[in-house]
Design a protein that fits this description.
Strand order of the largest sheet: 7-6-8-9-3-10
Structural class: alpha/beta
CATH architecture: 3-Layer(aba) Sandwich
Number of helices: 10
Distance between the termini: 44 Å
CATH superfamily: P-loop containing nucleotide triphosphate hydrolases
Number of strands: 10
Helix content: 25-40%
CATH topology: Rossmann fold
CATH class: Alpha Beta
Length: 265
């Protein structure tokens, strides 16, 4: 009885019928799963599904504030933030290899405070741009990271944002998913088993319907075969940003003027 349904199905492959048509995610997000697991067989069930994008009705106002901030703070490059927010970029991997954003081990768990801070800042902007908190999900493979992120989302503006493990998101979806990979270390050696799980990674990247933002250290993550395959696809499709020292990789302490959240959301 301790054996999961997935494990039992793996032992009896004749009982499994693969469904190749999906109505959840747009074509850019679907392409990740096609590259990782389906070898191009997965298809969108309709053009409406394939072309659906995140709705951000107040994005122009937020982009304008970011541009104004950049003019008065030229040492802070906000172009990567603007690109990450854009609904026309449904998939974006923010590579923190050069930040640096090293992991930390505490209370028996692994967390990454820089990734948590980046997620907090991006969520602040996305909500201000009009994304409903209830349409947002945050996924991390380690519970200590979930605690770190949740601690930053205590403001009433974030009520409705769901922060959880990939297993808790099985069979569910959100319009916007932010995925923190956490692991970032200069040391060689065993990095654990969670990110070596092909099925879990596939579940994580297919919970988003309209926009998927991933945060992680590509340098470290390439040591995991499933994530390396994902990164190769992302690189080929120009879905990786925030990745070199020519861009300001410092996180602005205040990347936009004092934020007042729209209460009509």
């Amino acid at each position: 009885m301790d054996e999961s349904l997935f494990k039992r199905l793996e032992l009896h492959s004749e009982a499994v019928v693969q469904l190749n048509v999906q109505y959840r995610m747009n074509r850019q997000i679907m392409s990740l799963s096609n590259s990782l697991m389906y070898e191009g067989r997965l298809e969108c069930g309709s053009e409406r599904t394939a072309s659906a994008l995140l709705s951000l009705p107040f994005l122009l106002s937020v982009q304008s504030e970011l541009s104004s901030y950049s003019e008065t703070h030229p040492h802070h490059n906000v172009a990567w933030i603007q690109a990450a927010l854009s609904p026309s970029n449904p998939v974006c991997f923010l590579d923190c290899s050069m930040v640096p954003a090293l992991e930390s081990v505490e209370q028996g768990g692994v967390s990454n405070h820089t990734e948590a801070a980046l997620i907090h800042k991006l969520l602040s902007l996305l909500i201000k741009a009009g994304c409903k908190p209830s349409d947002i999900g945050v996924i991390a493979p380690y519970r200590q990271q979930l605690k770190s992120i949740s601690a930053l989302l205590q403001s009433s503006a974030f009520i409705g944002v769901e922060v959880n493990t990939v297993d808790r998101y099985q069979g569910r979806d959100k319009s916007l998913i932010m995925l923190s990979f956490v692991r970032s270390t200069v040391e060689e050696g065993n990095l654990g088993e969670l990110l070596k799980d092909w099925r879990r990674l596939n579940v994580a990247i297919t919970r988003a319907k309209h926009k998927l933002l991933m945060v992680g250290s590509a340098t470290t993550l390439r040591r995991y075969a499933p994530v390396e395959k994902l990164l190769n696809h992302l690189q080929q499709e120009n879905m990786i940003s925030f990745k070199n020292t020519s861009c300001s990789c410092q996180l602005p302490t205040r990347p936009y003027p004092a934020c007042t959240y729209n209460r009509r959301l």
